[in-house]
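Exercise 7. Given the encoded structure of a 380-residue chain, write a plausible sequence.
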């Protein structure tokens, strides 16, 4: 299992100055390498590879004392980032997507560099090449085999991220040994963030909506500031902090919900939704605010760590099909109750969908269908 441990970095003022210089140098190198690739193709019809540019970096370091003082792996990380951007550009062209040619980056939007190697660590300290030992707040124990170290600056604060290999994931339990009460289907939505096949509703926190007034006030303040002024830079930071606070809230909520689900259930079934496509429609703002993708990814990660089953099922018809008799019962978005004219089942539409999701997940993993009993059932 590959996991990332992220900690606040605590450099001294002198170390922070050096790290900022390294970031600015990486940004200059990224932009220069991008310009070189553009000019080479435009004038010569030639594509320059990442290996070509890494060799050029070697020549630059031989002549430039400033670059010689920067670890070579730091410069290479900028060139690898550019190469990754071009690979993604060509992949999108091949798949018929909107290409999105790599763009030049301003220094304010170049946030990180990586080492692509393990660094020496002690409790609360990491040894960065040509900088020495730098303290970080180790609020949880770092363990596993370190594969990569990334240093990042966010809103004036520094962080260090350790990508570690925790070894083989725990072996998944035998599906046949999972009792019915440890199986659940999860239907995500907007009214409730999620409804379980047990009938439980997890409320939608609406973090974006609740912070909309604060965000709007800060954006109005930003719009009045003169470009290039210190007041404008401060206003930009305040807007960015508001967005970051909302993102942190969503991620925290998703992880807590995922932890609770994995502790209670051994088989968790979700719909395989095309969230990116849905977020381009009528309810795009609400869908992005709900954070369905965050919840699904957090559950998948925690299920893998616990040896549990996370299953994605085909979402087609889960809301329409009756969870008792299987007959389709079409309903509009405003209809919140499922009423089956065939078997008389009356149930909350999201609860009905969650049961269908669980049944599909159970079949997908090779189990015979579980005897799902719904208590909130009425007869028409």
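Solution.
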């Amino acid at each position: 299992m590959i996991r990332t441990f992220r900690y606040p970095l605590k450099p001294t003022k002198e170390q922070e100055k050096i790290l900022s210089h390294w970031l600015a140098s990486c940004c200059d190198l990224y932009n220069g390498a991008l310009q070189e690739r553009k000019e080479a193709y435009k004038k010569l019809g030639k594509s320059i590879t990442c290996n070509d540019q890494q060799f050029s970096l070697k020549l630059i370091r031989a002549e430039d004392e400033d670059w010689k003082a920067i670890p070579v792996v730091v410069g290479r990380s900028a060139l690898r980032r550019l190469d990754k951007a071009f690979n993604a550009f060509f992949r999108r062209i091949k798949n018929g997507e909107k290409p999105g040619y790599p763009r030049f980056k301003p220094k304010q939007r170049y946030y990180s560099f990586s080492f692509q190697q393990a660094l020496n660590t002690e409790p609360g300290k990491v040894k960065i090449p040509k900088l020495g030992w730098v303290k970080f707040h180790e609020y949880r124990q770092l363990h596993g085999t370190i594969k990569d170290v990334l240093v990042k600056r966010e809103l004036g604060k520094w962080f260090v991220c350790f990508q570690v290999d925790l070894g083989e994931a725990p072996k998944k339990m035998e599906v046949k040994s999972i009792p019915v009460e440890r199986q659940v289907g999860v239907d995500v939505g907007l009214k409730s963030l999620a409804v379980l096949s047990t009938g439980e509703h997890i409320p939608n926190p609406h973090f974006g909506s609740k912070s909309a007034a604060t965000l709007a006030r800060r954006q109005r303040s930003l719009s009045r500031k003169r470009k290039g002024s210190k007041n404008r830079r401060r206003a930009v930071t305040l807007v960015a902090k508001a967005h970051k606070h909302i993102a942190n809230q969503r991620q925290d909520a998703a992880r807590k919900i995922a932890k609770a689900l994995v502790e209670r259930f051994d088989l968790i079934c979700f719909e395989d939704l095309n969230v990116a496509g849905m977020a381009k429609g009528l309810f795009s703002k609400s869908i992005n605010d709900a954070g369905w993708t965050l919840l699904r990814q957090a559950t998948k990660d925690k299920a893998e760590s616990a040896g549990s089953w996370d299953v994605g099922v085909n979402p087609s018809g889960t809301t329409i099909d009756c969870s008792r008799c299987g007959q389709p019962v079409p309903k509009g978005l405003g209809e919140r109750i499922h009423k089956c004219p065939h078997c008389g089942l009356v149930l909350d539409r999201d609860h009905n969908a969650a049961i269908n999701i669980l049944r599909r997940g159970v079949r997908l993993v090779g189990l015979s269908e579980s005897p799902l009993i719904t208590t909130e059932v009425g007869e028409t």
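Remark. Residues 230-264 form the longest helix (35 residues). Students should compare their own answers with the one above.
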